[in-house]
Amino acid sequence: MKRIFAASIPILLLLSAFSTHAAGFTASQMERMGDFLSNFTVHGYVNFERKDIINGKDSGKMIQFGIWHNYSNNPSTIKPCYQCQWGDMTIDAIHIRQTMKRYFNYDLTDFPEVEQAGYPYHFDGKRYHFSLVDKTGQGLYAQVIRAEQTADGNIAMTGYLYKPGNHRAVTGKFKALASPHIWHQEKTWTILNIRYPVD
User: Fold this and answer.
1) How far apart are CA 145 and CA 126, in angstroms?
2) 46, 76, 145, 161: least surrounded by Cβ within 10 Å?
């Protein structure tokens, strides 16, 4: 069961206290971390392990993330498909591959046919077909209030999830682990796990 936090003065003070500096990371860096994690949490990926998504155990979640991340952030990758039996929209598989590499550091080479309940994404050999009616509503955004580098070089992040458009509408605390990553010559991260809610 989710623990619900009211937008109380103590929580707001806590957010403010940690928002400027933590364990060697600047406020700007932690803001970027929050943006990175929000790519997952806004689509409902708030409690998962990387290995459970990218190793074929649940290919539906993997393809779903690739599709809806691009739908939200790279709308030019989504093309209409008129009178298609598998849905009214398509996305080229290359964009799914790039998304998996960018956010999971995973080289997707085999594109699974995803027809299980909840993930009706048909692969025609080049594109995934899907329907806009399958899209879930917008989820929660992440704000990182503490970050530190672990002994193995990963970054442990702690923060709060909040409702879109309202940083004060805090819903609970999360912890996440990410690995430093270079994407298109830019320093970023790839996800290892997110845990929510936590104490």
Assistant:
1) 41
2) 76
Strand partners, 127: 92
Model pLDDT for residues 6-34, shown as the tens digit of each residue: 333 344 444 444 444 456 899 999 999 99
**Least confident segment among 130-134, 157-161, 169-173, 174-178:** 130-134
- Do 77 and 92 meet the contact criterion of CB atoms below 8 Å apart? yes
Closest by Cα among 19, 17, 18, 23 to 155: 23
Residues 6+ apart with CB under 8 A from 82: 88
Q: Residue 126: left if φ>0, alpha if ψ -120 to 50, beta else—which one? A: alpha
135-146: average pLDDT: 83
∠ Cα 128 132 136 (to 5°): 105
- C-alpha distances (whole Å) from 102 to each of 51, 119, 142 are 15, 22, 19
CA distance to 126, 135, 141, per residue, from 44 (Å)? 27, 11, 10
Contacts of 15 (CB under 8 A, 6+ apart): 143, 145, 160, 167, 170
The torsion angles phi and psi of 16, rounded to 5 degrees, stand at -65, -40
What pLDDT was estimated at residue 115? Answer: 72
